[in-house]
């Protein structure tokens, strides 16, 4: 019965362990020698510090350094949008603040542009609303700026990360030698192969 189970196991799992080849060291050495000094001089190390500091100095520059060319316009659009909202909300805040100050100063020579449009309490509400929106826009601008730096830093760390099709993990049946307490020299098992 044991021999029948062993035969079925061998047929089922195959002889993949016996067919494995060792890496050819001679071909690996030849490939390493092919890289001449000229080729290795052309290889420029990608600097994480450069990517980070470039993003600190000018948003989007770190993304360009990391060769993430589509991210830079997104950073620029985010910074431009939030700065634009901050400027607009600040101008509206000043406009309503000045209108309220004109209304309460009792000076007959100043003209109130919102005289028949808003009451004094509505001017205060509008002033507070645009001040909050301005502050929120400034916070969002700082957030986009911080994201820009963090994104450049992470992309620089992952610059050499290999995402080619050669990366694989394979789980396959195999046969192992040596388990003496089973009474057989060949034991079925699972083999994990990592290809880099």
Spans of at least 5 consecutive residues whose pLDDT stays below 50 are 10-23
Strand content: 5-15%
N- and C-termini, Cα separation? 41 Å
In total, the number of strands is 2
What gyration radius follows from the Cα positions, in whole Å? 35 Å
* Element order: H for helix, E for strand: HHHHHHHEE
> Widest sheet: strand order?
1-2
Helix and strand composition category: mainly alpha
Largest sheet: 2 strands, antiparallel
Number of helices: 7
Structure explained in plain terms:
This protein is mostly helical and 196 residues long. It has a domain at 48-160. Helices cover 59% and strands 10% of the residues. It has helices at 2-13, 25-34, 37-42, 48-57, 61-65, 71-104, 120-157, and strands at residues 168-177, 186-195. A two-stranded antiparallel sheet has the order 1-2. A hairpin with an 8-residue loop joins strand 1 and strand 2 (186-195). Helix 6 packs antiparallel against helix 7. It is elongated, with a radius of gyration of 35 Å. Mean pLDDT is 79; it is low at 10-23.
